[in-house]
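**User:** Everyone, produce a chain:

**Assistant:**
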Amino acid sequence: MIALVLLGVVALAVGGCVCVVWAERGGPRSVRTVATVTLAAGKVVRRSQKNRRPGLNGTSGDDG
């Protein structure tokens, strides 16, 4: 069951990447919409990871 959920998440991620590439080449409006949602979701994930783990970006936060 978990494998099916993971497979579905991977399929959505790959589909989103395909839509981003297709939208860059001038795809239809629906593809551009999916691409926008995919890029926005990526920004949200990156922002949440930065807020949760601030020490992993190579800086320790103290300069002394």
Q: What stands out?
A: Residues 12-49 form one domain. Residues 55 and 62 are 10 Å apart (CA to CA). The mean pLDDT is 84. The two ends are 50 Å apart (CA to CA).
